[in-house]
Specification:
Blueprint: E1 2-9, H1 13-24, E2 30-33, H2 62-74, E3 79-81, E4 85-89, E5 94-99, E6 103-114, E7 118-120, E8 129-130, E9 136-138, H3 139-149, E10 156-160, H4 164-175, E11 179-185, H5 194-201, E12 208-210, E13 212-218, E14 225-230, E15 243-246, E16 249-252, E17 256-258, H6 261-265, E18 290-292, H7 303-323, E19 330-335, E20 339-343, E21 346-348, E22 355-361, E23 365-374, E24 377-387, E25 393-397, H8 399-402, E26 409-415
Parallel strand pairs: 1-2, 1-6, 2-3, 6-18, 8-13, 9-16, 10-11, 10-16, 11-12, 19-26
Antiparallel strand pairs: 4-5, 5-6, 7-17, 13-14, 14-15, 19-21, 20-22, 22-25, 23-24, 23-26
Helix pairs in contact: 1-2, 1-7, 3-4, 4-5
Length: 416
Amino acid sequence: MMNYDIVVIGGGPAGLAAAISAYDSGAKNILILEREDKLGGILNQCIHNGFGLTRFKESLSGPEYAYRFIEEVKNRDIDVFLNTTVISLSKDKKVTAINSENGVFTVKAKAIILAMGCRERSRGALNIAGSRPAGIYSAGTAQKYVNIKGYMPGKSVVILGSGDIGLIMARRMTLEGAKVHAVCEIMPYSSGLKRNIVQCLDDFGIPLYLNHTITKIEGKERVTAVEISEVDEKRKPIKGTEMRFECDTVLFSVGLIPENELTKNAGISLSNRTRGAIVSQNRETDVPGIFACGNVLHVHDLVDFVSEESELAGKSAADYVINGEKEHNSVNCINGKNISYVLPQKIDTDLEENVKVFFRVSGTFKNCTFKLSCGDKVIIERKKKIAVPGEMETLLITSDKLKEIDGDLTLSLEGA
C-alpha cells in the first residue's frame, strides 16, 4: 500500500490548482491521479480563447491556461499517475485505483481532494421521439472530434441546448465550414454566458430559439432532419408550432452533471441542488479530511473561479494534514426566493477571515436585490441591474459580518 499526505483525484484545472496550493501550504507528499494520458482535463480540447481573463488579465486558450498550471506542478515535487482510473474511495481515505504499470493498487491518504469534474447529460436523459441514427453527439464529444482528433462530425447541424459548450460548438462548426441552422433552448433564457451568445451566435447569424425543443429526429442510418417545436410554460410542445430543419447532425448541450460516483461511495452527503457534495466554506465535506472543488462540486461558468475555489480546497487540505481536524461552529446557508443554489452550504461563524458565497439565480431578473438574512435580520444587501442563470454570482461575507450571525442564513433575490 502506498502512503501520501494528500491524494488529488483528477488532473484537470481543479486538481492542478488544488495540488499546487496544498504543496505551497506545507503538505509536500502529494499524489495526483488522472485517468487521461495527460494533465489538463477538459481544457485540452477547448482551443478557443477567453480563459484567464479574471486570473491572468489576458485571454488564453484552454491548453494555454492548463499549461501554466501543469508547469507549476512540474516545478514542485508532486507525484502524478496518468492513465489511472480510480475504482473506489472509502471513508477512511483509502483510494483503490488501476493502471497498466501498477495493476490494481491502494493508496492511503491523510486527506483527499475530489476534483473529478463533470460529464454531459446524454440524449438518453431526454424524451425525444424518433430513431437512433448516426449523427447524434453531445457537444463535448463533437468538440473533441474536431479539436483533438481532426474529424468533422457533420456539415449540416442543429444544436439542442444553449449551454456554453453548445454555443461555442455552434461557432466552431461554422468556422470549419458546417451550416448551423439553429440553436434551440427549452427554457425562456440561455444557460450560457452572454458573451458567448454574442460572439458565437449573433456574430455568425445563427438563430437562437428560446422556449423550443427538438420533438422528432428523422433518419434511418444517418440523421436527415429534425423537428423543433415551441413549448408552453410547463415545457410541453405546442401543436402547430413545428419547424423542420434538414440536417445530418444533432448536437446536445443539455447540461452538465458532477461526476460524484466516488463521492457517493465514500458516504459523503450530496446536495440535491448542485448534485455535488455539501461543503463548508473551506470546501471540506461532511467526511473529515475529504475536500471537493471545481465542477465535481458545482458547475462553474469560468475556469478562473474553478482555480480560485480549488486553491482554497488545497490550502484547507494541507491545514488538515498539518494541524489535524478542527471543531466547526457552523450554520446552514440555504437558497431562498429566486435562488437555485448556494455554496458553501455550511459556514463557520467564528472565522477571522472573509467567506465568499457562490450562487445562481433561477431566472432572468432586472433591477433586483440580493439579501442574505439571518431570521428577520438582513446581514448583507446588494443591488444588481441584471442577473441571469448562466452567470454565477458571488457575495462576500466579511469577518465582521460573520460575527452578526447567530443562526441559519438564507440568500434570496427580491424585486425584478
